[in-house]
Amino acid sequence: MASWWRRSSVVAHHIRAKVGLRGTAAHINQASSWSHPFQSDSSTLILPSFPCNIIATLFSVRRLKSTVTGKQLDSLHATDNDDDDQALDFPGGKVSYTSEMKFILGCSDKRIPCYRVLDDDGEQIRGSDFQQVNKELAVKMYSDMVTLQMMDTLFHEAQRQGRISFYITSFGEEAINIASAAALSKDDIVLPQYREPGVLLWRGFTLQEFANQCFGNKADDGKGRQMPIHYGSSKHNFVTVSSPIATQLPQAAGMAYSLKIDKKDACAVAFIGDGGTSEGDFHAGLNFAAVLEAPVIFVCRNNGWAISTPISEQFRSDGIVVKGKAYGIPSIRVDGTDALAVYSAIHAARDKAINVQGPVLVETLAYRVGHHSTSDDSTKYRPLDEIEYWKTVRNPVHKFRKWVEISGWWTERDEAELRRSIKKQLLQAIQVAEKTEKPPLAELFADVYDLPPSNLLEQEKQLRETINKYPQDFPSDVSLCI
Fold it and tell me: So which domain of life are we looking at (predicted)?
C-alpha cells in the first residue's frame, strides 16, 4: 500500500506540472529512517591481536538508512543548475557520484586474516586475548574431543567390517564441533550438516544413542528410517540431519526469526561445509537472515574439499568470510584447529546475534583429514603427505591437549584412563546396538498420515510380498508384523 501511494504521488506531481497546477505539494513523509542495531562501519574481521572483549564490537555492520519519500519527491523539482556531484538519494541510502569509471575489484591479493589464540605447539600467542575458560570447562572440551575422535575411529571400523552401512568422520574438525558447542546455550537450536556429531555429544547424547542410530535398531529415536550419522534430538534442540545440502540454512533463518518474535534468549546455529555455499539455499538463507535481522549464527566449515572438488575450483572469492559482507552480515575467519579461538569467536557471535539481533557468519579453516565418507577414497585426489601434515602437525586434538597440559590440568595418566574408559564404553555400545532387534516393518509406513492413503497401503503390500518371495535378500531380524 505504501509503495502504491508513493508511486501515485509521483504521478500526481507530473500531472500537476503538465497542466500548470502549481502549488505546495503535500509531501508524505511516512517512510521511516531505519537504523540497524549494528552501529560500527566495520563489517568483517578480527585480527589475532585484538582482545576478545571487543570482538562483539568488531562483529558489526549497519543497515544503510532508507530514503525518505519526501526527499524523493523534492528531487523531481531539481533544475539543470543543480550540482552534478550531489549524492543520489536512492532507496537504501545515499550513493555518491563519481566522474571516474572504475570497477570494484572482484578479489584482492590481500586475504582476510584468520583469528587464532594458540600456535601449532599449543602455546598461547603472546598478546592474544580470548574468552577465558576454567579447568572444568577445558577438561570437558578436551575429553569430548578425544571421545569424538575415538567414536569416529571405531564406527568407521565397524562400517568397514560390514556391521553398519555408512559413516562419516569428523577427523580434523573436532575443535569446531566441541568448542562451538561449548560456547552455545542448550536453548540454542542447532541445524547441523552431517559433520557435527560433537555438538550433540556435548549436549548429552550418549554413546549408546549414537550406536543405536547408526545400527538403526528399535532403540533409535528415528526408528531406523534414516541413514547412519543422520542424528536428531528434539530433547537436545538438534534438528535431524538432512542429506540434501544447505536446505537447513533458510530454515535456520526462519527459526531464528521465530525466536526473535517470541523474545527468546536464544539463537539458531546452522552449520555448512564449503561445498554447501555453492548452493542457492546458502545465499537465500543469508539474505533472509540479514533482512529480517534474525539471531542466527552461520558456521561454515571450510575444510578445503567438497568431496573431491578443491576450494580453488569452487569459487574465486577469498573463501567464505567475504560473502557475509555482500549480505550485510558481520563475519569472521577463525582457525578451526584452535579450540580456544573457535570457542571465543562463537561465544562473541552468540552474544552479538542475541543482544544486537542479527546474523553472524563464522568461517572456520580446518582441513578434512578423513575421507568425505565411507563411500569415498580421498587418496585418489589428494596427496598422502598433505593429509599426513594436517593429521599430525595441525591436529586440533593434539594442539588443545598441549595447552591443557601447559595449564597444569592434564597428565599422561589422565590421558590413559580417559582413552581406556571411552574405548570400553564404545565397544559395549556397539555390541548392545548390534544385538537389539530392528523396528518392525510397519514402522516404515507410520507417523506421516493419520489414515494412510491407498497408494501407501499398496506400497506396503508390495514390499511384504517381495520380502516373502525373496527372504534371502532382506535382513532376517526385521519383523514383518505390525
Answer: Eukaryota
88 within 8 A of 298, measured Cβ to Cβ: no
Q: Is 60 a catalytic residue?
A: no
Digitized pLDDT (tens) for each residue of the chain, 482 residues in all:
444 444 444 434 443 444 443 333 333 333 333 333 333 333 433 333 334 444 444 455 556 554 443 444 444 444 444 444 578 888 888 999 988 999 888 888 889 999 999 999 999 999 998 999 999 999 999 999 999 999 999 999 999 999 999 999 999 999 999 999 999 999 999 999 999 999 999 999 999 999 999 999 999 999 999 999 999 999 999 999 999 999 999 999 999 999 999 999 999 999 999 999 999 999 999 999 999 999 999 999 999 999 999 999 999 999 999 999 999 999 999 999 999 999 999 999 999 999 999 999 999 999 999 999 999 999 999 999 999 999 999 999 999 999 999 999 999 999 999 999 999 999 999 999 999 999 988 888 989 899 999 999 999 999 999 998 998 888 777 777 65
For the chain, count helices (H), then strands (E). 15, 9
Confirm whether 293 is a catalytic residue. no
372 part of the active site: yes
**Active-site hit among 123, 157, 388, 458:** 157
Q: What angle separates helix 339-352 from helix 135-160, to the nearest 10 degrees?
A: 110
Positive/negative CA dihedral, 263, 266, 272, 274: positive
Say how many C-beta atoms besides its own lie within 10 A of residue 137's C-beta: 12
Residue in 75, 243, 375, 421 annotated catalytic: 243
The torsion angles phi and psi of 357, rounded to 5 degrees, stand at 65, 90
What is d(CA 300, CA 362) in angstroms, rounded to the nearest whole number?
Answer: 6
Nearest in space to 197 (alpha carbons), one of 238, 137, 142: 238
Q: Is 443 labeled as catalytic in the residue annotation?
A: no
Write the CB contacts of 389 (distance below 8 Å, at least 6 apart in sequence): none
Residue of 43, 60, 170, 373 marked active site: 373
Q: What share of the chain is helix, strand, coil (3-state, %, to 5)?
A: 45, 10, 45
Neighbours of 120 (CB within 10 A): 15
Grid coordinates representing 458 are 499398496
The stretches of 39-120 forming alpha helices (DSSP H) are 55-58, 69-75
Helix (H) or strand (E) holding 299: strand 296-302
The grid coordinates of residue 359 equal: 546474523
